[in-house]
Amino acid sequence: MSQLLLETIKIQDGVIHLPEYHQQRMCKTMKDLWGTVPDFSVSELSIPVKARTGLWKCRVVYSPHIVDISFEPYTYKKIHSLQCVYVNDFSYAYKFANRTAFEQLLLQKNQADEILIIKNGFVTDTSYSNIVFFDGDSWYTPSSYLLPGTMREYLIETCQVYEKNIQVADISSFKKARLLNAFNDLQNGGEITCDNILQ
């Protein structure tokens, strides 16, 4: 059986957020892994009545074909601190449904709320999001990311966030950080002071 992939999509009051970015990622994943194209359109997703009010998470599980589509209410995680976890050989270029590797790394978060994965000295992602740093003027995201998140891509393309090589030693030069995923942008999801990024 082919390995399962996952796409997590934000539904707000029945509106699908950034459907073109999710479609683009699914298309690239399927082309890279199987040489096929999706038999599924994110923009034509059938939203059940219950998910047309409030904030919902849609999980699309797929291989060369759609395996499962589910909806559940979404609540923002409260993340106030990060523990740096150091790896040299870690890859997550595609959004696999199997998250065993992240679960192993999360065992190292100690008293922090979440981990920040440092690969060969460079900042990458947390276990479930990309990250951006604010220097007082602009937001920057590591060019050494693990997974190209949809919100990350959108914010870069709209010039709200800029890519930059960020090493672990650079973290203290920033004022604060935010986590980015399908639900978290530059307004939602909460801020983390760099003092709370434990190295």
Strand content: 25-35%
Instruction: State the CATH topology of the largest domain.
Output: D-amino Acid Aminotransferase, Chain A, domain 2
User: Looking at the structure, what is the overall shape?
Assistant: globular
The major beta sheet can be summarized as: 5 strands, mixed
Radius of gyration (CA) equals 17 Å
Give me the oligomer status. Answer: single chain
Instruction: Give the beta-strand count.
Output: 13
Output the CATH homologous superfamily of the largest domain.
D-amino Acid Aminotransferase, subunit A, domain 2
CATH architecture of the largest domain: Alpha-Beta Barrel
SSE-based structural type: alpha+beta
Number of domains: 2
- Output the number of helix runs: 3
Overall mean pLDDT stands at 94
Element-level helix/strand string: EEHEEEHEEEEHEEEE
Sequence of strands across the biggest β-sheet: 10-9-8-11-12
The CATH C-level class name of the largest domain: Alpha Beta
Helix content: 10-25%
Ends: how far apart? 40 Å
* Unreliable segments of 5+ consecutive residues: none
Question: Any overview of this molecule?
Answer:
The chain has 199 residues and is α+β, with helices and mostly antiparallel strands. It folds into 2 domains: 5-73, D-amino Acid Aminotransferase, Chain A, domain 1, CATH 3.30.470.10; 82-198, D-amino Acid Aminotransferase, subunit A, domain 2 (D-amino Acid Aminotransferase, Chain A, domain 2, Alpha-Beta Barrel), CATH 3.20.10.10. It is built from 3 helices and 13 strands; from the N terminus they run ββαβββαββββαββββ. Strands 10-9-8-11-12 form a 5-stranded mixed β-sheet. Strands 2-1-3-4 form a 4-stranded antiparallel β-sheet. A hairpin with a 2-residue loop joins β1 and β2 (15-16). The mean pLDDT is 94.
